[in-house]
Amino acid sequence: MIGAGGADLSRLHVVVPLRTLDGGKTRLGAALDAEEREDLILGMLWHLLVTIRAWGGAVDVLVVSPDPALLSIASDSGVRTLRQRGGGLNDGIRLGIADAAAGQASAVLVLPADLPLVDPASLVRLRDAADAALAAGGGRALVAIVPADARHGTNALLLSPPDVIGPAFGEDSLRAHLEAARAAGASVQLVDDPALGFDLDTPADVERLDSGRLAELQAIGAEAGGGGSRAGMDRASAGRPR
Q1: Which of 5, 102, 168, 177 shows a CA-CA span of 20 to 30 A to 15?
Q2: Residue 222, Cβ neighbours under 10 Å: how many?
Q3: Does residue 189 contact residue 134 with C-beta atoms inside 8 Å?
Q4: Max alpha carbon distance in the chain (Å)?
Q5: CA 122, CA 114: separation in Å to the nearest integer?
Q6: How far apart are CA 118 and CA 133, in angstroms?
Q7: Closest CA to 90 of 64, 118, 116, 126
Q8: What is the DSSP string of the chain?
Q9: Which residues, 6 or more positions from 87, have their beta carbon under 8 angstroms from its beta carbon?
């Protein structure tokens, strides 16, 4: 949908930011050893990329990371990749947003790669909510946010135009994104979604995740990391939550 003013969802790009493979999800160390964490990180990434492809709502998908090995694995799925040369997570997201804007994106959806339950239906619901907010806002710039189920973090951030606000992922990011959106005069849409709202960030989150789903994601990651990228993608597609 195209609004009368600054917001336009017709050319939506997805940006997937990632830290390094060996340095990611260290807070899960009390629940998983290093190898298990790496398999889980790769499995969740692969699952997310399969899900975005099945959804079909993006004209481009970009994975941004400082880790060349991780980017090589991501590129096997057919998405574009961008090497981050320095800075933290939000710096990587800014690189991705700048890349999307240079590619004529009208909107950007930032999706962290730690969403084990995300499925195409949840992305459809997010897009539908953004369309509704766009219509209600008379085409004003748009910020749609999926809060983490703990209500402090941000699990998805949709921006139109792509530079309406800057990313502020991290501690209390939900509040930071809301304040920035209101300061920018943008229409704001909060989208509560159980599939998008659950992320794996702490040992308690691992305990909440079904053990079968955890094992499945780790198996996908082990295949992808071991060079079985096509097999990993097929397994992710077959195992996608309904």
Answers
A1: 5
A2: 18
A3: no
A4: 51
A5: 15
A6: 22
A7: 64
A8: -B-SSS-B-SSEEEEEE---TTTTTGGGGGTS-HHHHHHHHHHHHHHHHHHHHHH---SEEEEEES-HHHHHHHHTTT-EEEE--SS-HHHHHHHHHHHHHHTT-SEEEE--S--TT--HHHHHHHHHHHHHHHHHTTT--EEEEEE-TTSSSEEEEEEESTTSS----STTHHHHHHHHHHHTT-EEEE---HHHH----SHHHHHHS-HHHHHHHHHHHHHHHTT-HHHHHHHHHHT---
A9: none
Q: What is the pLDDT along the chain (242 residues), one digit of tens a residue?
A: 443 347 899 999 999 999 988 776 777 867 788 899 899 999 999 999 999 999 999 999 999 999 999 999 999 999 999 999 999 999 999 999 999 999 999 999 999 999 999 999 999 999 999 999 999 988 799 999 999 987 799 999 999 999 999 999 998 999 999 999 999 999 999 999 999 999 998 889 999 999 999 999 999 999 998 765 444 444 445 444 33
The residue type found at 196 is: L
Label each residue of 129-194 as H, E or C.
Answer: HHHHHHHHCCCCCEEEEEECCCCCCEEEEEEECCCCCCCCCCCCHHHHHHHHHHHCCCEEEECCCH
Half-sphere exposure at residue 76, Cβ-oriented, CA atoms within 13 angstroms: 21
* Domains of the chain and CATH, by start: 12-230 (3.90.550.10)
